[in-house]
Design brief:
The complex is a heterodimer of chains A (201) and B (125).
Chain A lengths: L2 H28 L34 E7 L5 E8 L5 E6 L4 E6 L9 E9 L4 E10 L5 E6 L4 E4 L6 E5 L2 H5 L4 E7 L5 E6 L5
Antiparallel strand pairs in A: 1-2, 2-3, 3-4, 5-6, 6-9, 7-8, 7-10, 10-11
Chain B lengths: L1 H19 L4 E13 L4 E3 L7 E3 L1 E5 L5 E7 L5 E8 L1 E5 L8 E5 L6 E11 L4
Antiparallel strand pairs in B: 1-9, 2-8, 3-9, 4-7, 4-9, 5-6, 5-8
Classes of the chains: A alpha+beta (201), B alpha+beta (125).
């Protein structure tokens, strides 16, 4: 073998050995199933439909639209999006750096209310360490405020896509003061709707 | 020699791909569907383990029904709780910890719904 070819071969073998080692370490850390089975798409075939369907939320990727990104006190960002499922539901989706969550509705996002929102929390059930409300308001809404259990109302910053986030302060959480309603205001500043929800937990 | 090197690289890449595609998620219902949820009523799954981990939680219910999903550790603590109207879903960024799924009607109305989660199987032999 020519000297140059021998060096080339040596480099190639070293590179391949490094790749094999990396794959081996990754596989050990990940601890996947032993037998090689092609990954299957998620299915909800074992959950039968009966009124409230047990379908998994299979989103149509081309319908996903980002509505806003908001910062939380923890340093994480909350990314709010809307999308449709393959079976025609409209969804509000939140990605907060620690996973994805959402809710999906029949008949459109604002068919029943002028706002759709999610309440996310950590800790509980007696005491929460984090809590935030993320949502999107209907096109006719220009302002949103949060009503808390202590009677205080907090006006929220709503972006051009009518998305908003409210985060409970540590002192509120320690005092068990929670958001319990969203007040919605029209273009003239008048209250057009109030959507109540239970205190956290 | 060059051909041998090419064969070697292809063999390594193929075996890497062979080892990566090894998991499948299976859905399990733990309440309903069609279960009646009275105000304050909740349902829970079994705890997971090293052989199979819950990777998300879902609560299917009407668009005018408020409820929550959460993950409960063996000490009874809640994590990644999600409340909303309609069908709720919550994925987990890291599912390698022991937990059970919980869904609850924390509203003042009664409604029908179903709760389910996906469980990822691991080789635990």
């Amino acid at each position: 073998m020519h000297v140059r070819e021998r060096a080339h071969m040596r480099h190639l073998i070293l590179g391949v050995a490094a790749l094999v080692a990396l794959v081996g370490v990754w596989a050990w850390l990940d601890r996947g199933a032993g037998p090689s089975v092609p990954a299957e798409p998620r299915s909800a075939t074992s959950v039968a439909d009966a009124g409230a369907s047990g379908q998994s939320h299979q989103l149509k990727a081309e319908t996903k639209r980002q509505r806003g990104i908001f910062g939380l006190g923890s340093g994480r960002d909350v990314r709010i999006s809307t999308a449709e499922t393959v079976d025609g539901k409209a969804c509000l989706i939140e990605e907060d750096g620690i996973g994805e969550a959402g809710s999906c509705m029949e008949g459109g996002l604002f068919a029943l209310r002028k706002v759709e929102f999610l309440v996310s929390s950590q800790g509980g059930p007696e005491r929460f360490t984090e809590l935030h409300v993320a949502g999107v308001a209907a096109p006719a809404v220009r302002g949103v405020s949060v009503l808390k259990t202590d009677g205080e109302s907090v006006r929220l910053a709503v972006n051009e896509d009518r998305a908003f986030v409210y985060e409970s302060s540590p002192s509120d959480l320690a005092a068990r003061v929670y958001p319990i309603a969203l007040r919605l205001y029209g273009p003239n500043g008048k209250l057009v709707d109030e959507v109540s929800f239970p205190p956290a937990g | 020699m060059r051909r041998l090197g090419t064969v070697l690289v292809v063999a390594v890449v193929a075996s890497a791909a062979f080892g990566v595609a090894a998991r499948a998620d299976t859905v399990y219902g733990y309440a309903g569907p069609g279960e009646w949820f009275s105000p304050g009523e909740g349902h829970g799954s079994v705890y997971d383990n090293l052989c199979g981990r819950w990777v998300d939680n879902n609560f299917a219910k009407p668009s005018n029904a408020w409820g929550l999903v959460t993950f409960i550790n063996p000490s009874g603590g809640w994590s990644y709780t999600q409340q909303a109207y309609g069908n709720i879903f919550r994925d987990l960024p890291n599912h390698q910890w022991t937990k059970k799924l919980h869904c609850k009607n924390n509203s003042g109305s009664t409604y029908q719904g179903g709760c389910f989660g996906f469980r990822r199987q691991y080789s635990c032999t």
